[in-house]
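STRUCTURE REQUEST FORM
Protein name: ATP synthase complex subunit 8
Source organism: Botaurus stellaris
Requested output: structure tokens
Priority: standard
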Amino acid sequence: MPQLNPNPWFLIMLVSWMTFSLIIQPKLLSFTSTNPPHTTLKTTTKTTPWTWPWT
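Status: completed
Returned output:
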């Protein structure tokens, strides 16, 4: 069964993962975010319960 022969496909998988891990991923992680998260305190809003007219 040819699909069980890992000879060409295993090398292709390894090369693609190594390319991603060593070349593409550091380039992507070096970009600064355009919308960085803020460390401000979260303000909670006071909500009032809804008064249902039929109860």
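Reviewer notes: The mean pLDDT is 80. DSSP finds one helix and no strands in the chain.
Form closed.
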